[in-house]
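Lab notebook, design round three. We kept the backbone fixed and only want residue identities now. Task for the bench partner: fill in a sequence for the structure below.
Input structure tokens:
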């Protein structure tokens, strides 16, 4: 039963989840830090409770405080949003042990995907194409490490099993650097993730970051809902995402998508999930699976014509998916610009009072945000203040709408990355589509030169 959902998050995603609950006639409970007392999610929810001071360790990451709020408010489900506790397997287990519904996969599934070696092993076994390399931790014996690395070839990349999202990785270009690089990466893995297991893969030099959205119910049904391209990023922070990934044969994407959906069925996956791939020279290579709703889910919603948060709640309460793969049709093209309170050149955070706020509108334009004029962006959390999402019949139409929408958008009082977005929509390579993960950093390096 899901009659009252506690939203264990803040900002635009808390607002997004509250909207979905309202559509379903489900009650909502917000939790917030002292710094977010007058935030939009607090005002929108049926009830709101303060769970602690501004620092996330003492509020949005305080599992006991969140579970206590669920108990006193009679919430019967918890939506974790993204970030914070969304991929914390122990939290998912504690929620279920308290007799509540965790809106997401089981703790056991999250543990498999949280360990990047076990994730890759499980996905390779399920028929998902992976980066060449052993799906095992590297041994201690230096001679065996050198032999394994020779088999993979150089350049290769060392990755911490407990890492992910760009943390705990190191490129190695030659054998002479291998053992020192392994020692350093192991030590980082131990100190950052409490896990010194390291694996090696062939290093792809110019990949695109392409992901496949999936959703699965508890009746053995799983669907793939199209692709997204998230290559436009800087230091693992995505800037613009789009759906579908441009310039890739639809049949090739469908083939990989089917593999992802089949993998979900074979491991008994439940909820929404994302298979992350590197795409290089016409091939897909699985790297990680995210077991949460992602920031960029709206571009999939716009192209698939589905409400992913509604579907998340429906499958969490035990309903069968209301559609089959043959009913999934991805139409047109969508872009999402992440609007951040940050300096457009240095990317340094720029919190403070928003004095003017004008968002774009019109056909195919959507804004997901918790901000507005008079809102003070707190300095304690990530700098995302909203997302501008556009949809059009073709990539060209969507890009024209995005350019026009960025022209209408006004945010004053703080620095934002709007100037960067306006520049990117006029970038020739981005206009063509299919830039690799290094494009933005190359562009910024060109400015400095
Ligand atoms: C790689 C790679 C090249 N070759 N793996 C970074 C995030 C993490 N999810 C995986 N990452 C990478 N793995 C191999 N075998 C390059 C990256 C990478 C990257 C990937 C996706 C998006 C942005 C990136 C930025 C730098 C490096």
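Proposed sequence:
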């Amino acid at each position: 039963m899901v009659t009252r959902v506690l939203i264990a998050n803040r900002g635009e995603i808390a607002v997004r989840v509250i909207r979905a609950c309202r559509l379903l006639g489900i009650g909502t409970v917000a939790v917030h830090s002292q710094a977010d007392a007058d935030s939009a999610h607090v005002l929108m929810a049926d009830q709101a409770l303060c769970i602690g001071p501004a620092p996330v360790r003492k509020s949005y990451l305080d599992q006991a405080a969140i579970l206590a709020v669920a108990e006193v408010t009679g919430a019967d489900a918890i939506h974790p949003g993204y970030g914070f506790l969304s991929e914390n397997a122990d939290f998912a287990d504690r929620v279920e042990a308290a007799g509540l519904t965790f809106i997401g996969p089981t703790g056991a599934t999250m543990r498999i995907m949280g360990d990047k070696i076990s994730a890759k092993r499980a996905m390779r076994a399920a028929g998902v194409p992976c980066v060449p390399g052993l799906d095992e931790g590297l041994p201690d014996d230096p001679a065996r490490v050198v032999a394994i690395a020779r088999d993979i070839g150089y350049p290769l990349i060392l990755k911490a099993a407990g890492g992910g999202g760009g943390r705990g990785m190191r490129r190695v270009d030659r054998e002479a650097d291998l053992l020192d690089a392994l020692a350093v990466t192991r030590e980082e893995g131990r100190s950052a993730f409490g896990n010194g297991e390291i694996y090696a893969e062939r290093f792809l030099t110019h990949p695109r970051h392409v992901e496949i959205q999936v959703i699965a119910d508890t009746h053995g049904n799983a669907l793939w809902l199209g692709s997204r391209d998230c290559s436009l990023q800087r230091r693992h922070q995505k800037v613009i995402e789009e759906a579908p990934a441009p310039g890739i044969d639809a049949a090739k994407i469908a083939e990989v998508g089917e593999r992802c959906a089949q993998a979900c069925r074979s491991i008994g996956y439940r909820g929404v999930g994302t298979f992350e791939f590197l795409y290089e020279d016409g091939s897909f290579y699985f790297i990680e699976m995210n077991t949460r709703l992602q920031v960029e889910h709206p571009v999939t919603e716009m192209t698939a014509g589905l409400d992913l948060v509604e579907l998340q709640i429906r499958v969490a309460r035990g309903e069968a998916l209301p559609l089959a793969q043959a009913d999934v049709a991805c139409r047109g093209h969508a872009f999402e610009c992440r609007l951040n309170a940050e300096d457009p050149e240095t990317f340094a955070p720029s919190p403070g009072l928003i004095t003017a706020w004008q968002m774009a509108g019109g056909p195919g334009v959507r804004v997901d945000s918790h901000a507005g004029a008079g809102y003070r962006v707190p300095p304690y959390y990530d700098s995302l203040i909203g997302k501008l999402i556009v949809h059009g019949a073709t990539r060209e139409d969507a890009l024209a709408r995005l350019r026009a929408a960025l022209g209408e958008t006004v945010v004053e009082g703080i620095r934002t990355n709007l100037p960067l977005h306006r520049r990117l929509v006029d970038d020739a390579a981005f206009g063509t589509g299919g830039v690799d993960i290094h494009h933005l950093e190359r562009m910024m390096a060109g400015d400095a030169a």
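Keep this in mind before ordering anything: The CA atoms of residues 92 and 106 lie 7 Å apart.
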